[in-house]
Design goal:
Number of strands: 0
Distance between the termini: 47 Å
Largest sheet: none
Number of helices: 3
Mean pLDDT: 77
Radius of gyration: 15 Å
Length: 71
C-alpha cells in the first residue's frame, strides 16, 4: 500500500492518495496473480469529486455501439 501511495504522490491526487492507493491495490489483487494489467480499465465520468471514484467488477458495454455498428 505504501508503494502505491508513493507512486500516486502528485498534486492532483495528493489529498486522496490513500483512497486511490486502496483502489489500485484492490484492482491488482483481483487479477489473482495475472500480470495482464490491461484487464484493468479506467472509465472516466465528468462531474463529482475524486473521492467518488470506486472499483467495480464486471464489464461495461455501450449497447448502442453494438446495435448500430453491426449489421
Amino acid at each position: 500500500m505504501k508503494i502505491a501511495q508513493t507512486t500516486l504522490s502528485s498534486k492532483i491526487l495528493s489529498q486522496d492518495k490513500e483512497h486511490f492507493a486502496k483502489l489500485v491495490v484492490d484492482a491488482v489483487m483481483r487479477l489473482k496473480g495475472s500480470t495482464y494489467l490491461e484487464s484493468i480499465q479506467i472509465i472516466k465520468k465528468p462531474g463529482g469529486s475524486l473521492k467518488d471514484s470506486f472499483l467495480d467488477e464486471g464489464y461495461a458495454m455501450l449497447l448502442y455501439d453494438f446495435i448500430y455498428n453491426n449489421p
